């Protein structure tokens, strides 16, 4: 990690991302707590996260737009737009305004897709292939480390002052990120050459994902786990309420505990990628989520702490493995579309599971649902582990595959890479 942080350009991008990730960490959980406080409903609180993920259906269009513009100015514009989108939250006063939170959450989810697609391309442009795992590991370490203070601080500020201050803090974070990246000097052309602008170009990212064996395996396994992982967004509120008999704000404490596990996972994620390959790291992350969910089926605080530590450990391994695999196995001109398509393929099932979980938690015992999550994610992790040889560890830079049948408009033909 120290090697990649010695690069001045990456350090500047890193500083910008710290600001934007801090904004996310104090706000996202607080939105769900805000809805829970206004409505008293666990399902409606969990539906807030569903609203954030639902715009993934537009991912192919977002990826196509991202690939047609330079990464740096697009990243600046996306952060500025994210700051503006949070403004309507300042008008929320009571239960009748909950719809405003949902609308803003959905718009923020759309901006998140955009920022993720741009960021993957920007990192790939700044960092050589052999340091991509380190760069992704550094960012995941910070993201998970912020879970130690961000959600708890956000819940504390909300309880003491109200949501308006959280909104202002988050807006400031995105504005700072835009300003810092504005100082980054990057020589780049547009990422996509002129050509057809129809369904063929929009679907190029999905064709690449399905045509590249390691990416296909990664998305199938992770997508299977995502079908039930989203249940936990609503289940955690029921676990705190019915199992631990505590207020909804205590969810922030558990997320902080999860951040400790995430910090450890982030620190070691690059080493895991180098030892087991990208698919191996992804497999380890998904598998660790299984016993964590099974432990939460038994409501004891000490066991919940262990479970959240293990769940936190799984997150950076999963994300570093997947992001590094995408960056290494995708031509730069397709990276926006491939990143957006992968987000849709993972977050689509997750959005469905969040919505389903919000309904099921009102019908079935939350402990039974946690057990189901544990069984399915363990199976998904074992499926990924069997395919770890598709991305065997390498010592040097990885060759980015080229399309089998390159089209003259710069779009992969059907069949992938």
Automatic annotation (TrEMBL):
A Gene Ontology cellular-component term: plasma membrane
Q: This protein is called what?
A: Major Facilitator Superfamily protein
Q: What is its main location?
A: membrane
- Tell me where the transmembrane regions lie: 12-35, 47-66, 98-123, 167-186, 219-242, 248-272, 279-298, 304-326, 338-360, 366-385
Alphabetized, the UniProt keywords read: Cell membrane, Membrane, Transmembrane, Transmembrane helix
Membrane topology designation: Multi-pass membrane protein
> Transmembrane helix: present as a keyword of the record?
yes
Q: Does the keyword Cell cycle apply?
A: no
Q: From what superkingdom does this record's organism come?
A: Bacteria
Domain Major facilitator superfamily (MFS) profile residue range list: 1-190
Q: Which Pfam families match?
A: MFS_1 (PF07690)
């Amino acid at each position: 990690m120290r090697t990649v942080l010695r690069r001045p350009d990456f350090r500047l991008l890193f500083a910008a991302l710290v600001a934007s990730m801090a904004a996310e960490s104090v706000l996202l959980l607080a939105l769900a707590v805000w809805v829970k406080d206004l409505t008293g409903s666990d399902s409606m609180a969990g539906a807030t996260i569903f609203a954030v993920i639902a715009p993934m259906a537009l991912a192919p269009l977002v990826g196509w737009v991202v690939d047609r513009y330079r990464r740096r100015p697009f990243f600046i514009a996306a952060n500025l737009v994210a700051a503006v989108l949070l403004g309507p939250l300042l008008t929320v006063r009571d239960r009748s305004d909950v719809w405003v939170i949902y609308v803003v959450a959905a718009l923020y989810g759309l901006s998140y897709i955009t920022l993720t697609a741009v960021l993957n391309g920007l990192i790939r442009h700044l960092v050589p292939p052999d340091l991509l795992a380190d760069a992704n590991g550094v960012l995941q370490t910070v993201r998970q480390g912020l879970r130690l203070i961000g959600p708890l601080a956000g819940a504390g500020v909300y309880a003491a002052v109200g949501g308006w201050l959280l909104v202002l803090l988050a807006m400031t974070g995105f504005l700072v990120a835009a300003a810092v990246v504005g100082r980054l000097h990057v020589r780049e052309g547009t990422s996509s050459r002129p050509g057809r602008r129809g369904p063929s170009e929009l679907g190029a990212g999905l064709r690449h994902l399905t045509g590249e064996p390691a990416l296909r395996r990664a998305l199938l396994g992770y997508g299977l786990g995502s079908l039930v992982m989203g249940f936990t967004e609503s289940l955690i509120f029921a676990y705190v309420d019915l199992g631990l008999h505590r207020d909804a704000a205590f969810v922030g404490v558990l997320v902080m505990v999860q951040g400790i596990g995430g910090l450890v996972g982030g620190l070691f994620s690059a080493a895991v990628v180098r030892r087991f390959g990208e698919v191996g790291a992804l497999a380890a992350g998904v598998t660790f989520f299984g016993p964590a969910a099974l432990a939460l089926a038994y409501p004891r605080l000490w066991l919940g702490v262990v479970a959240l530590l293990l769940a936190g450990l799984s997150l950076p391994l999963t994300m570093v493995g997947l992001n590094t695999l995408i960056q290494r196995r995708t031509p730069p001109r397709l990276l926006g579309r491939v990143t957006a398509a992968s987000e849709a393929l993972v977050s689509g099932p997750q959005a469905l599971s969040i919505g389903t979980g919000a309904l099921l938690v009102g019908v079935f015992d939350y402990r039974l649902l946690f057990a189901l999550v544990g069984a399915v994610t363990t199976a998904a992790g074992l499926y990924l582990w069997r395919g770890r040889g598709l991305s065997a560890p390498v010592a040097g830079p990885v060759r980015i595959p080229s399309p089998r049948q390159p089209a003259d408009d710069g779009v992969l033909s059907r069949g992938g890479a």
